Amino acid sequence: MDAGGLLCVRAAVPPGARPPTSPGVVMTEHRPPTPEQPRWACVLCPCRWRRGQWQWRPADPGYLTCADCADRLSTWLREVRDLYAVLDPAGVAGEHGRRGWCSRSPAWDVVLAVTDPRGTTIVHPGDVPSVPAVLAAWAAMIRDLRALTPRPGGVGEHVQLLLDHLPWITRHPWVTDLDIELGELRTWVRRAAGVTTGGRRPSGHCPACGRPVWAPTDPTATTITCPCGQTYHRQDWTRLRTPIPA
Q1: Cβ atoms within 10 Å of 169's Cβ, excluding its own
Q2: Which element (helix H / strand E) includes 28?
Q3: pLDDT tens across 176-195, in order?
Q4: Residue extents of the structural domains in the chain
Q5: Nearest of 110, 112, 83, 120 to residue 192 by alpha carbon
Q6: Residue 176's closest CA among 71, 39, 45, 40?
Q7: Residues 6+ apart with CB under 8 A from 98
Q8: How far is 170 from 110, CA to CA, in rounded Å?
């Protein structure tokens, strides 16, 4: 090891191969174990190796998270709310096949699971969580801790409560639990909504030609167009799941 903290490893140079700048020597950086997280660090940011040393990102004064992690939680909450709003468990009784309807696919089973309010409220890796049940549990906890009047509501109301109290939430150590569970909800809602890298989800089949139609996941989108040229407005999208006669 040299004086600069770099570990020098001798490497054999194959016959006929061009040797590196220093023949037979490959410089690899020696990294010490990750240090213990200091109290001033953001509880959600990982420790990163930068400029030859481990670095923790500081939390904002008076909070346990940095501004970027707080913004990420806010973005995830809105994404879960908006994607959940486009799920339609009533319209997933089956899939359209070449001769009418066939048995329900695993993708639709996920839709039914994440929209079931009687589902699990504790998120375990690999389990399909119930979005309304998990968010209702978090909303109930916030109302209890802040002595707020209990009130019924759906996913949209629960998300809005969490958004309204997010600055207060990021002052408490259990924000790490919210981060984990919200990440699981986001993963499964995106899967249920069929989110792809192109920002589209399967919406159904075109009644005019029978081709599959993909809707944009952008909540502000108002129309989709089938390859045959037929255009559908947002209020007509659920009609695309209507079975086509065999």
Answers
A1: 21
A2: strand 25-29
A3: 999 999 998 998 888 887 77
A4: 67-195, 198-246
A5: 110
A6: 45
A7: none
A8: 31
